[in-house]
Specification:
Layout (H helix, E strand, L loop, with lengths): L3 E7 L3 H14 L5 E7 L6 H9 L5 E6 L5 H11 L4 E4 L11 H8 L5 E6 L6 H17 L12 E4 H7 L9 H8 L3 E6 L13 H15 L2 H29 L8 H33 L7 E5 L3 H4 L1
Parallel strand pairs: 1-2, 1-4, 2-3, 5-7
Antiparallel strand pairs: 3-8, 4-6, 5-6
């Protein structure tokens, strides 16, 4: 068993693979570690770069997925291969510095289950910072995240927590949500968020929204509760209007005026019904795919000294 497993989802980052591996080797001198790089069906030469680096770096385990499943699925794949007492999860773009891993390692060894890397200043686009803030606020409701904890993609997790995470049969995994399902023994330390020097970001607004929806629908019934509240509110408004129009009829003031109101009410109520059905359908669809044991990930190739042990 290794001291550390470093799980890195890789997507279209061939420029970073060699430099990231070099920095990890330099930062973790004296620590028995394994570097698990999961190629999430990249469109560039990322897998070829992983293969090339693995020839001179015995710490590397390369996993090549047959189809793109998203960052969390790639991380989950790496967790299945990890054998370390502690598992570090980090991005592939060098914005998370390998030289901060020893500090995370030292902190989690004080008895914590998980230690997040908190960034005082995130060197990314404004919309990403706003999205992180919004996601954090919703997470406080959906997964009971403490207000003082930042859900960083750079973190270290104790092996017992990893083992519990792997027990979840969730086709749409959200790693931070799974962590908070397992433990509340969580801390964080402040590190620097570095500017991306190589390549370009693979994250866009659509992918960020998908991650947010994984958290919202995978670990909370809040959307169903909102749909129920909307239904009760619409019913209450309808009842009030029905009483109002009935009183107007009794008073002899009923006429054909009010078509605009009628059309607006139909649109509002109809829209509310379709939104509610969509929310319910999302939950049912996820349940259907999970019950049918659809695979979370499919491995095409592996490389590295770990192959014989796992296969």
């Amino acid at each position: 068993m290794k001291a550390l497993s470093i799980v890195i989802p890789v997507y279209n980052s061939h420029e970073c693979v060699a430099e990231l591996s070099r920095q990890l080797a330099d930062a973790l001198q004296g620590i028995d570690y394994e570097q698990i790089m999961v190629n999430d069906c990249s469109k560039d030469t990322s897998w070829q770069e992983i293969q090339a680096v693995s020839k001179t770096n015995s710490h590397i385990i390369g996993i090549n997925l047959r189809k793109n499943g998203g960052q969390d699925n790639a991380i989950l794949t790496g967790l299945h291969f990890a054998s370390g007492n502690y598992v570090v999860i980090m991005d592939d773009d060098l914005q998370h510095s390998p030289y901060d891993i020893p500090a995370l390692y030292a902190e989690v060894q004080k008895g914590w289950d998980v230690c997040y890397a908190n960034f005082t200043h995130k060197k990314q686009k404004l919309w990403k910072n706003m999205g992180s803030w919004f996601n954090g606020k919703i997470s406080e409701i959906a997964i009971q995240k403490p207000q003082n904890i930042y859900l960083s993609p750079f973190k270290i997790i104790a092996r017992p927590v990893v083992q519990e995470i792997l027990k979840f049969n969730n086709l749409f995994p959200y790693i931070d949500g799974l962590i908070f399902q397992v433990t509340k023994d969580i801390t964080q330390i402040t590190v620097e968020h570095h500017k991306r020097e190589l390549g370009k970001s693979n994250y866009n607004l659509i992918k960020s929204i998908k991650v947010f929806l994984r958290m919202l629908f995978g670990f909370s019934t809040a959307p169903l509760q909102i749909a129920a509240y909307l239904g009760f509110t619409s019913a209450a408004i309808g009842l009030i209007l029905a009483l109002w129009y009935f009183i107007e009829f009794i008073r002899g003031k009923a006429d054909v005026v009010g078509w605009t109101t009628l059309v607006i009410l139909i649109l509002i109520l109809g829209g509310g019904i379709f939104v509610s059905l969509g929310i319910i359908g999302e939950y049912i669809g996820r349940m259907y795919l999970t019950i049918n044991n659809s695979p979370k990930f499919i491995i095409k190739d592996t490389i590295g000294y770990h192959d014989a042990k796992k296969e």
